[in-house]
Known about the structure:
Layout: E1 3-6, E2 31-37, E3 46-57, E4 69-74, H1 104-117, H2 120-125, E5 129-131, E6 152-155, E7 157-158, E8 185-186, E9 191-192, E10 195-200, E11 213-218, E12 221-226, E13 236-240, E14 244-251, E15 260-266, E16 271-274, E17 285-293, E18 302-308, E19 323-327, E20 331-332, E21 335-339, E22 354-361, E23 365-366, E24 370-374, E25 380-381, H3 387-409
Parallel strand pairs: 2-15, 15-23
Antiparallel strand pairs: 1-19, 2-3, 3-4, 4-13, 5-6, 7-13, 8-9, 10-11, 11-12, 14-15, 16-17, 17-21, 18-19, 18-22, 20-21, 22-23, 22-24, 24-25
Amino acid sequence: MIINFLIIIQGNYGIENPSKPIIDEAWQGNYVYFGEYDMDNDGKKEPVKYRVLSKCTTDFSGNDSTVKTMLLDCDNVFLPDGDKGMIFHELNYAVDDSKWNNSILREYLNNDFLTSSFSLQEQAAIANSVKENVAESDGDVCDIQPQRWTALSGDKIFLLDAREVRNESYGYSDEQWGGDNRKKFCIQRQENWSWWLRSEEEHPTLPENDGMCAGAISRRVVICFFVNEYCGVSPVLNVRLSDVLMVSIVEGTAGQTGAAYKLTLINPAMEIRPEQSTSAQSEEQVTVPYRLTGADIDNATWVSVLFTKKDILTADGYYDAGEAIYIPNAGQDGKAVFSIPEEYRNKECGTDYHVYLIAENETDYASKPVEIVYSKDHMVTVPQTGDAGGLLEKMYAVCFILFCIWMRRGKISLHR
């Protein structure tokens, strides 16, 4: 079976940035399903839907502009503490330069929520977000109940700041009082609900009240609540695009407003190694022996083949192939057996087009693609990457396994 499949271009092929916000209309853009959470308190976790605020950004990469991420903002409001939500912090907690850094919410999101809502591979793909200063595209300071800009110092999961939630490139209106595009639905309460921001209120005339209130969205208004009030939670995260191999459409039409996607993440502990082939083959069919290796290889459910018009790996380490021909479940007893698509039959493999083998786990996780090249008489060869490349891949896999062991042994503490 041959079907069209979308390969990610630096994390964004097919996925679009949000539409320009209209103040009295709902948020419009694309979505990604990522992780799981029990959103309706029925004891079962459901896939979580996130708004794609930016399909490719470096705003949360600190000083390393080579790290590109996809910024995701939860489409719903969660109420972790029963049907009440969570408090930001106790009212009498110690005053410092950043209430967010020592908040109950930050501790919860980067420990219990992170480890219970995402697989180890998903956790590894979530970037440590660093944002020291306001971005050029972030919105203005609020006129009433102004809030301090609140930096990020390596959070995997966080909340939006009051100026980020007025960022028009994210699909949110740059004004304080209106903005239906900021409304979010709470499945537990079956109605729109308020949700916390990470910023705190600033009192230029009453400095003694600093730290008593934190930012929130009340239905659609940017406002402040006392830190010990209960409010909903809407998590935000960045996914490193270098960890994403493919995106597939699960709702709507690719490239259109409202489309929802799922990500296929690279699992470095799962490898496929094609072998040289000298067996006679037909003009239309190719057979490639392979070996599966790696600590997670038992989780591989099938081997797939990708046909692309260009090399899919860019110089800066991102997968960039555009639209490709994808042949799933091509593995048969240690051999990938597939037909050459008609459009490539009179062209030269490795020059006019490229072919890759991938080991997959139900399109959720995949090995790094490995290119194969066959001549017109279908003699298969495997391009050599050299010992250095192989050593780096092994080191990456070992580091990933150690990370998984560390995550299982204990929770992360973000307190300084």
